[in-house]
Predict the structure.
Amino acid sequence: MAIVDATIYPVSSVPIENGILLMSGGKILQVGENVTIPQGATVIDAKGKMILPGFVDAHTHVGIWSEWYGQAESDGNEGSNPVTASVRAIDAVWPDHFAFKDARSGGVTCVQVTPGSGNVIGGETVVVKTFGTVVDDMVVRNPAGMKGALGENPKGSYGSQGKAPKTRMGIASILRNALFKAKDYLRKLEAGLEDPSKMPDTDLDMLSLVKVLKKEIPLRVHAHRADDIVTAVRIAEEFDIDYSIEHCTDGIEVADFLGKRKAKVNIGPTIWHRAKIETLNISPQTPGALSRAGCHVSIISDHPFHPIQHLVTAAAVAWANGMSEGDALKAITLNPAITLGVDDRVGSLEPGKDADFSIWTGHPFKIRSKIEAVFIEGEKVFG
């Protein structure tokens, strides 16, 4: 199939006027102005339209969070213990949830689904496409990270029950303690490879955290307040582990600190009310400020807290508040794909990548522009 005469935004390179997107078998074959279209290929005329990569949302609770049915669809937080490293988001994702349809309607073709932030360590995340009936067939990367959380959420979840953690000190202590236990467990595993009699008993929490220590997956830390952001970085550097900062609401206050580290920050929701004291400084200027400081910025919906079908609106508002057009587009395409470790497949329109894209009537940052069609792996899934 070939889509012709469109303005194509590959994101990884400059826009192409009167461009051609050629695809086959769910993959992109060529993108450019002078592309030979094979005889017999289906040709779609997109003159006057724009083609963009499928949007990538690096932090959502799509398919695991209650939006309508109450407890029956509420699977985001395993609130039985502050450390639940072994729980896996993939085991709770409901592909029939209407949030996936909402995502497609907004051009979002790939999402990271994360456990909630009620626990200090909440479990493994998963990256999936937003179309399918069996979650295993939708997976792009599993696991894609380990959810961690600092601040008011774990304090409120357990302190209100008279249990630890009751304070930020307690949260940091629990996180460090779990990582130290995982280091001990890793040493025992390594000893067991040399001498099977020394192999430790199976501990699923520890096995999951070993993936973090071995840098197979990053720790993805929920942190709104500036001091929590710094604590997340401090602990990650203590253990020499990869990390991303989730939400990063007060990021402007520590922009230089994060910029020096070229930190991966997943910012959002930026269009939201001040739901708690930690979000008092919520601002659409944050993505642009942190991008200019040198951070690797992704804009997130945190669906359902900002409706995922309006992820592009958050990017448009960031652009209107000082972020460059290119950086704002990257923040919902290539940057999150890199952060999630799936940029070999999604995030830009390049040969060899999945044919995930949307066709627009105009620039997606203009209020009157509409999506005419959305494709995932070359299959039309919306429009």
Summary: The longest strand covers residues 139-149. The chain is about 30% helix and 25% strand. The chain has a mean pLDDT of 97. The chain has two domains: 1-53+348-383, 55-346.
